[in-house]
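To whoever is covering the structure queue this week,

Two jobs came back overnight. Logging them here so there's a record in the thread.

Job A:
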Amino acid sequence: MHFGFSYVGFLFLLMLMAPNLIWSRNKPADYAAYAKRENKVLQWMERIGQISVTCLALLCSDLNIKEGGRFALLLFAFLLMVLYEIYWIRYFKSGKTMGDFYRSLWGIPVAGAVLPVAAFLLLALYGRSLPMLLAVTLLGIGHIGIHLQHRKEIRAAANAREMQRRDTDI
């Protein structure tokens, strides 16, 4: 691993953080209730992964564009980040409910979690960065795990509402 500024990592982080900053003012109304019930181990894994990925993305010059046969990995990682932006555009145009936030995108479940993790995973493979690979793995377990937990709760609540509606119809 070579230390130095990574303009590719910086670009990926910009693509990651810009919509998240906008989201911080456009959260679903009941998001806080779900966040309170998050698994603490997954939260720690997510936070450590976020800090590690951010630092490594900026400081690992191996992630920058270079000649070689792995350019397809970088291109595919970038395309996943473009899909991530599309995911956010769709969310911001929606009613901004928890259901909207956790809708799949073109068959990709919990796309808001899966797409950036997959993109940074490919970026780690492109740069042949074991520390980045480990950090992304930690981030992925925590971040995707939390999002899957929320999606499961949303589905359970929707099922309960449907059952209640059926009971009142009888």
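Job B:
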Amino acid sequence: MRWRPNVTVAAVIEKEGRFLLVEENTDRGLRLNTPAGHLEAGETPAEGCAREALEETAHAFTPTSIVGIYMARFERRSPGDEGDTDITYLRFAFAGEVGALDPGRALDEGIVRTLWMTPEEIRASVERHRSPLLLQCVEDYLSGQRHPLDLIHTDRSVHMPGPA
């Protein structure tokens, strides 16, 4: 079988010293994460990040820079579970501009609520993080790590209909 990492996109959204996180239901209970999700066919990583941020937080988000590109491996062995889980995630994390809350917009399935947390609160809640990449992305953002969006080249074929 061919190995393929799961490509995800994440929004590192900071406003007045606080970061916008989501609290979501997972198979490991309620967890915290940056607004994030899987990249979908036909979209660039920046487009996917804007979509995921809107779906999970009801805030429009415009990516303006790349905080970093990250990899993490998640392994889980469940008693009585025939299929072990071993997934590698490749995450593109973006910083950008957040818009106003759309109070009439429902949050994505599984998202319980959004939270604005300080870096200290994020560091103190590591045991509740959905991904080890959450804190790393925030720390890199705080250190001033930013890269231009054109670091990622998307060939026009991505937006073309039909098989590649």
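Note for Job B: Strands lie at 6-12, 14-15, 18-26, 29-33, 36-38, 59-76, 85-101, 111-117.

Please reply-all if you pick these up so we don't duplicate work.
Q.
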